Structures are given as C-alpha cells and as structure tokens.
Amino acid sequence: MTGFVLRRLLAAVPTLIAVLTLVFIIVRIVPGDPALVILGDQATPEAIAALRTRLGLDRSLWAQYFSFITSALVGDFGVSMVTGRSIMAEVGAVLPHTIDLTLASMIFGIVIGVPVGIWAALHRNGVVDVAARVLSLLGLSFPVFVSGIFLLLAFSLHWRWFPVIGSADLSDYGDRLHKLVLPTVALGLVMAAYITRVTRSAMLQSLGEDYIRTARAKGVPWRRVVWVHGLRNASIPIVTVVGLYVGILLGNSVLTEIVFNRPGLGKIIVGALNQRDYTMLQGLMVIYCFLIVVVNLITDLLYGVIDPRVKAE
Amino acid sequence: MRGFRAALLGSALAVASAIGFNTSAMAQGQTLRVGMAAQDVGRLDPHFAVSTIDRVVVAWMFNGLVRFKPGSINPAEIESDLAERWESSADGKTWTFHLRRGVQFHGGFGELTADDVVFSLKKAGTAATSAFSADYRALETIEAVDSHTVRIVLRENIPSLLGILTNYAGGYIVSKRAVEERGDTFVRNPIGTGPFALDRVTPNQSAELVAHAGYFRGAPQIGRISYRFIPSDASRDLAFQNRELDVNYGRADQTWLNRTRAVPNTVVDVFEPGELAIINLNTNQPPFNDIRIRQAMAHAVNRAELVRFRGQDVAREGQSLVPRGYLGFSADNGLLPADPARARALLAEAGHPNGITIRAIHTQLPEMLNMMQVVQQQLRRSGITLDLQVVEHATFHQQIRQDLSPMVYYSAARFPVADIYLTQFFHGRSRVRTPTAVTNFSHCDQADSQIDAARVSTDVEEQKRLWAEAQRILVQNVCGVPLIETLLVFARRADLDYGYELKGSMSLGPLITEATRLR
User: Fold this and answer.
1) From CA B300, how far away is CA B383, in angstroms rounded?
2) Contact at 8 Å (CB) between B313 and B254?
3) Which of B154, B479, B493, B507 could bridge to B444 as Cys pair (CB 3.0-4.6 Å)?
4) How far apart are CA B470 and CA B420, in angstroms?
5) Could you report the per-residue pLDDT of A260-291, keeping only the tens digit for each?
6) From the CA of B435, how many Å to the nearest CA of chain A?
7) Burial class, B25, CB count within 10 angstroms (exposed 0-12 / middle 13-18 / buried 19+)
8) Does B21 reside within a domain?
C-alpha cells in the first residue's frame, strides 16, 4: 500500500511540472501588465518600469521560469506581487475554509444523493423516480448564485437563522459550523443532484446483472441484495463522480464563496487573475494540482477497497 | 432626613456616573462594520494605494501636512493637519511648515518629526517607492530645518502645493522608522498617525482597525473598524439590510438608490468627486484624424439620456473635458449639442453617406460596459456602428495604452484642480506610447501652451482664464466627448454620525474620524 502511494505521488511530479510550465506560459500570454494593475492609471512609465524591475519581470522569460521552477520544487512559491505576503501564508489562511466547504458539500451530496438515487432506481418510472429525476435536473440547472440568494433571503433575512456574511472565525468551531450551513446546502444540492442521477443509473445497471438474480434465487434478503450486492457494484462510478466533483469543488466554489462572503481558494484565484498576480496564480495552481492528485489517489485507493480485483491489479 | 436625602442624592449620582461611565465604555468598544465591493485590499502603503478599496482605508490611518476639511473636497477649505501652520516666500517657491508637537505614530513608533515628513515626501516623489511620483516633480528640495520644521523649495510654481500635501495620494506621511524596519512588508503593515491603526488583514475577509488612543485630535469614539470585503453587490445589500453592516458601498444607480433609501433606518450619501466619463478620440488615427467624424461623434451623443439611464440623483451631464467643481472648470467652451441629423450630415460630408463602422476595445466591467452600450445605441441613430471588442479589465488598460483602440471610454476623478485633468488627459507630454505617457489617448497637444502657462502662473485669475481657453481649444478640436459625471454613493445606518456633513471625500469613501460615532 505504501509503495503504491509513493509510486503514485512520484508519478505526479511530471504532471506538476507540466502544469507549472503551462501556468507560467499562460499567465504571461494573457494581456495585462501586473505593474500597471498595481500602480494604477496615474503611474508614469518610469514608475511602471521601476516596479517591473522590483518584481523581476524585466528578466528574460527563461530566467523567470528557471527561478520559479527551482523554488517551487523546494516548496517555495515566493510572495504575492500585490500584497507582498507569502503565498503559503495567504493560501494557508483560506484553505481551511475551502476544505470545510468541500467536505461538508461532499457529505451533504452523498447523504442525500445516494439514498435518493437508490430509491429512484428501485422504483423505476414510478412517482418517486420521476420526482427524483425532475428534482435532480432542477438542482443541476439552478446556478449557485440564484439558489444562494434564495437561501439568504429565506434563512438570513426572513427567519434570521443564519448570518449573510459567512466568513467565520476559524478558532470558534460553533461559529464555523453555523456559517457553513447555507453554503453547504447551496453547493451540496448541486452535488446531490449529480450523485442522485449517477447512483440511479449505476444501480439500475447493477440490479439488472446476473449476480443479483442469483442472489435473489438463493433467497438472500432483498435489503441485503440492494445494499451489499447492488450498491457495492454500483459504487465505482459513484466514487469516480464524487472524486471528480471534489476536485472541481476545491477550486470552482468561487460563486458560493462570493454569494456567502466566504474566503476560499476560488476567490483567491479570481482575485489573482484580475490583478495579474503571476506569483500567486502560479503558487495556487501548484497547490490546486497537488490537491487534485491527492483526491485522485484517495479515489484510486477506494476502488481497491470496493473492488478487490482492482487491489490485486 | 437631610442625611437620607444626601445619601439618596449620592446614590443617584453614583448610579448616574456609573451609567455614564458604562455608556462611554460601550462607545469605546463599538465596532463600525463597513462593507466594500472588493475581493481583498491591495497595498496599504498610502503611496501605493491606487484602488478605491485601498484609498478608503488608508485615509483612516494616515494624515497629511494639511487636509481637506472632512466632508469637503474644496481646495479653498484645506486646513491644518500635521502642520499647525505654514508660510511661503513672496515668489511662492519656498514653503515652511511647522509641525504639531506630540503627534504619535501607531504601534509605539514614536513622535512625528520633520525627518518623517522629509522621508515621506521624498518617498512619494520617487518612482520606485510611489505610484504618485509624477505629482512631486516640481519639488526641488525638501529639508528638515529643525525637529519640527520642514522647508520645501519648488523648482517652478505649481497650481497648488498644498494640494499635493493633503491627506490624499502621495501626501500621506508615513513613519520613516517603520518603513525602514519593515521594508517590503510595510504594504501590509503600515504605520501612520491617523485615528485608526491597522490591527490585521485576514485575506479575502476583512481588514481590522483599532482606535489610536494617542491620536492627536483625541481618542476616536469608535473602538474598532471592521472593513469587510464583499464583492457581490446582492450579498452586501442583504448583509446591510440584515444589520450586519453599518456602512455599505453603494452603486451609482437610481434603482439601487431608491431601493436602499426605502430600507428603514438608512441614509444614502451621494457625494463628490464626480467621476467624469469621456470618450477620447485618437486624432492621429483614422477615422478620427478627420475632425468632421469627431464632430459627428460629438453630435451623436445625448448626455441627457445618459443621465436618465444612470439616475438623476447620482449622475449629471459632463459639460467640459474637466469635471464640474474643479478649480478652473469652464462650461463656456462651445460643446456640441446632441443632433443626430447634423451628425449624419457631417458623416456624409466626410465621405460616409451610408454611415461608418468603428471598432473599439472596451472593458467588461458592468458599469462601464452598460454605459457604453447605451452610447452604442445613440451612435447607431446617427449612422455610426460601434463594434465593441469587450475584453477583461486589465487587458483593456494595457491595450488602450498601446493605441489599439481609436476611441477610448475613460472615467476618472482627480485632484480637483483643472491642471491635473488637463495635463494627464490632454497634454502632449502625456500621450500614450511615449516615455512620459500618462493617459492622453487623443494625442491632442493643441492646448499645451495654455496648460503649461496656467501651471506656473501665480495670478489666479490669469490661471483660470488660461484653463478656460485650454478647455475651449480641446472641446473645439473634439479631442474627447464628455459624457456624464457619476457621483459616489454609500449607505449608512441612520444612527451613524460621521461627525461632519459628507459632501465630498478625496479618499472616495467616508472619512471615519475621531468624531464619528454610533448613536
């Protein structure tokens, strides 16, 4: 197991370097001068040139690339061009908020999505199935900035159960949990809708297999057939979807963060892009890429737990 | 009986004083929550604070040698700040400032001295350490005469020396020791002398400020300020309605204004400076190298309609190529009126009887894009088809400085003296793609001599005459078409008293002073 994990992590190094290189190139291809963004529209060309020198942007691209890669490989992503703060410190300050929201939404999505998906599969074309399909379609088509505003109007403004400003004090766990509820529901509903549909179709496929018929013929109780034989075999696509979705949530929850006023990685990425904060973008991409690698690794390990044949391979 | 009364009176006084004490203690502990349309703050070194988000907060932490009277942007009302008095030589080139004694920097960085002032002004005038260095070119020497006296000698006269020493842009005074000790980290750990000191910045969340107990005008009545970054307008408005914010950055939009005014216990402040939007026409490039096409553009624009679109309470028509209210503004400039028929005739005369198509680069920022789309429809009525190439905002700024767009929509507010606006936008030295470029997108230089002469003139009336003449020349050459001026809008709880009447603020947000209180 340890060997497998190490091999996977090592295999991720070329991916990380490729991502780093791509990010380095892309942020420099996009028009927009960071020095101009930082200094504003009254800055003279002299001031802009001075800042470019200070930021190291006057060096050749090769020199910039070399120093970026060598620093990144030892875990030093430098400082933000805009704020002058360490990138690790900036990311470290918001990462717990992102992880909170991602995990909570994932749990919410699984807890709602899996049972509803199974239920819909067991009542194929029945009222429950149609309702689940319509609701999941609604969940998928409702953007977070719409559902989020509805949630705020109802639960913050009307009933006053939750605050509108969702940025919590990390050291106060009660506050953290309280302010996590509405964003989790907004983001988790989309995930639940997605998982419902995948679970339903995976279960329908699984329940039609020969081993299910065999199990039923042998007199295995229906509940056990569904939850052990059916669900276990349907779990691979569900885990794949959850793994993929968690990866997306890590960086793409920016709309939820904006609507609920929460700090997070997505918001930092958008801010860095608007301000052409090259160093911040590069650092964020490495961290994001690393998180994706870890999530994929966990997904692969779960495959082994669900299906022993994968472990054997 | 007398003893009983005395005891009763004593008890009552004790209770009253205790209540009084507690009220005072409560006031000291009050937190003012300000919601700002921002992802985060940028640089809090005041000499690098260029965005509205940064300017608003540095104004609470720093002072200048002099200041605009709180709530005003009238240069005639500039008053003493860190300097308690000053005098100038007969020729106006040597100025001596006498500093207040006992002014303390935040965080135990000691008393303000002339060394701090000399250091700050030199820093503000150096390109590597300030975004506003161009404003300080005329300063020849800045020296400390003694620990509390500073002498400034000018190379040449400028319209307002006091103007560049106010609590605005490069005029803020920083702690020399703090800048030297903190180096590059000063941008997020600034030290000033203002009523509030920075406590901490939580990225993506807020900047927290605490009252500066040793503030030279007296300890602030507000204990803390929580400056919260809330980029979503809808969420910020909901937070304000939910009483999670005391002050809310508003939208310069009549619908927003009307809706917010209807919120109970709310006051909406609309204040100066107005940001003047101008369509700058590149007179060096086709099609605008033909003055008839430029005149057609000017006739095609209907400013009254634009004001109605933005809102009568938050916008007003642009009347010149300098915003209204600036020293030297003149509306007597021959601005062409809206006249689509005349615009079509001019186009035909210029060889475009079937109209003309113009490609222009424009930003995707909603408030600028919306306005440009209205202008696009107005131009269409006169036979001008505007093909908008919408790009991201930073890209827009870079591309317009590369002359990639023959017309540039630009909206800005500057120090309220005509010289700044005219120099930055319409002086030959400020043309884009030149070593001395600022924001002259029209490439006009026809009024250079008037602008230069006005800048060094010591006769105020002569100065005003020259600025008026410069505006007339530029308007008649149609270097740009003024559109509208948009005012600043902030909402606040009715029980928040700024301690002054908010009519204007050069920091683009309400000043929170020692007198500001939550009733």
Assistant:
1) 9
2) yes
3) B479
4) 13
5) 999 998 888 888 888 889 889 888 888 888 88
6) 6
7) exposed
8) no
Calpha distance B506→B166 (Å, rounded) = 10
Cα(A258)–Cα(B143) distance, integer angstroms: 49
| pLDDT over 70, % of chain B | 94
* H or E, element range at A21: helix A2-29
Detail the DSSP E strand segments found in B377-495.
384-391, 407-412, 480-493
In the chain, the amino acid numbered B416 is P
Between chains, do B235 and A259 touch, taking CB under 8 Å as contact? yes
ipTM comes to 0.83
pLDDT value, residue B97: 98
CA-CA distance, A4 to A9, in Å (whole number)? 9
Q: pTM for the whole thing?
A: 0.87
Considering just the CA atoms, what is the radius of gyration of chain A in Å? 24
Q: At what angle do helices A181-207 and A127-141 cross, to 10 degrees?
A: 130
Q: Identify the CATH number of the domain in which residue B460 sits.
A: 3.10.105.10
Q: What are B236-263's pLDDT values in tens digits?
A: 999 999 999 999 999 999 999 999 999 9
Residues B507 and B360 in one domain: no
CA B448 to CA B465: how far, in whole Å?
Answer: 14
The beta-carbon neighbor of A157 closest among B51, B241, B397 is B241
What is the domain range of residue B285?
Answer: 272-487
Please tell me whether residues B172 and B65 are part of one structural domain.
Answer: yes
Q: Is B204 within 8 Å of A156 when comparing Cβ atoms?
A: no
Report the alpha-carbon distance of residue A7 to residue A10 in Å, rounded: 5
At position B256, the amino acid (one-letter code) is W
Number of H helices, E strands in chain B: 15, 19
Among the partner-chain residues B130, B241, B412, the one whose CB lies closest to the CB of A41 is: B412
Main-chain phi, psi angles of B321, to 5 degrees: -95, 15
State mean pLDDT over B44-61: 96
Contact partners, residue B81, CB within 8 Å, separation at least 6:
B63, B64, B65, B66, B67, B166, B167
**pLDDT mean across residues, chain A:** 88
Spatial separation of the C-alpha atoms in residues A84 and A70, rounded to whole Å:
20
Structurally, chain B folds into a number of domains equal to 2
Q: Which of A90, A164, A265, A279 to mutate to test the interface with B (most CBs of B within 10 A)?
A: A164
Least confident of A37-46, B154-163, B322-331, B430-439: A37-46
Residue B389 contacts A, CB cutoff 8 Å: no
B92 and B227 assigned to the same domain: yes
In the stretch 413-452 of chain B, residues with CB closer than 8 A to chain A read: 414, 424, 435-439
| DSSP string covering B505-517 | -TTSS----TT-E
Q: How far is residue A111's CA from residue A130's CA, in Å, rounded to a whole number?
A: 20
B350, part of any domain = yes
Alpha-carbon distances of B349 from B300, B342, B353, rounded to whole Å: 15, 10, 7
B39/A271 CB distance under 8 A: yes
Residues of B in contact with A45 (CB under 8 A): 435-437
* Nearest CA-CA partner of B63 in B95, B30, B105: B105
C-alpha closest to that of A267 among B53, B200, B231: B231
Distance CA B75, CA A215 (A): 89
